[in-house]
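I'd like us to work through together how a protein chain folds, taking it slowly. To get us started, please write out a protein record for me. Go ahead whenever you are ready, and we will take it from there:
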Amino acid sequence: MNVQAKPPLPELRQAFRRLDPLRLHGRVVAAGGLQLTLEGLAPWLQVGARLRLVPPGRPAVPVEVVGFQSGRATAMAFAPLDGIAPGCAAVLAPSAGLPVDASWLGRVIDPLGCPMDGRGPLRHGPQPRPVRAPPPGAGTRARLGARLDLGVRALDAFATCRRGQRLGFFAASGVGKSTLLSMLAAGADCDVAVIALVGERGRELREFIEDDLGHAGLARSIVVCATSDSPPLMRREAALAAMAIAEHFADAGRQVLLMMDSVTRFALALREIGLAAGEPPTTRGYTPGVFAELPRLLERAGPRAEGCPGAITGLFTVLVEGDDHDEPVADAVRGILDGHVVLDRAIGERGRYPAIDILRSLSRTVPGCLHPAEAALMRRARAILALHAEMADLVRLGAYRAGSDPAVDEALRLAPRIEAMLAQGKGERSGITDAFAALATALETADGV
């Protein structure tokens, strides 16, 4: 009796690889506004699942499931829905992930990991990284690291930042927060900079890269961009993808600076998605899911697990509507982050940039990272600026006579010198030691007048 020999294991593996993968197909049954309704896949789907719509004669359109209703899946697309019609095939796609690789440094990509800079395809890392991930456990997370040179005197002296800290930059439109971010991207002390441009104007991308970042800044950066005309899923994904990239480098032990412009546009994208999925509007039209998603994103920045030397220092801009710093998104973000920096339009109109309002800005980690002499110098400067602001109207009206109060006279002499020290051009680079030296010099010089 002849017994046929079994094929060796390597040949079996090769045979399995040649088999066509299982493909699960559904179809589009309705489309309206931003929302698609799919049927035929409900038992295999969950919220967040990715599919590809395959319209005849057109490129596939990636979509994501955002909810369910009456046994059917509700989905939204990452691209325009041109050509999508009832009956269009919907194919279940692999789980979402970004194949991050160190060779991505110096590149500009979209939220799905496709190049936007015309420099050819990206090399893929060995293991895709999920764009949604929990933060390190609160009980095992490392503490904040040493203080960090941000390269901007006003921040280094009055809102000193530590490695792994999260700072918010709150400003209305046109006050200079994008310019301030470009100064931080070029001058901050970090190994890797990850820059998320969420809902930005398309024309500003090359200006930011070529004029603000420059060749040296771009070489250590990865820029993730979703322009204002992108669908809401792409704008949301820009923030999630940038965070996943930052986590990749931080887990490898690198010091990462994550800059996101802006959290407000991320929240607006979440609101569009939530309303399309059937969530009820609440405060100013924002859906409850927005305020659940914000801490899930922002808490991922910071130190990694104990024993990992890497950390993500997060700088997040918040676009306040109508100069209202108590609007819902600004209020929620301020309560999550480790400090806030306020940019004031009136300061910019006076010609002092960056237009940071020192008296309304705060870093919650300052007590743990300043030397006693530096802390005393900062408190004195704050007190002088506060007294000057308090007396400014009386001085303008001529209601204050010089010599009436020595403290006021001192404030009137010193405040302009402090303001001059805070002014900084876009190309200037400073450090914490330089910032406090400049502040001390301004005060000492004025004392001798």
About this structure: The two ends are 112 Å apart (CA to CA). The CA atoms of residues 148 and 245 lie 21 Å apart. The chain has a mean pLDDT of 89.
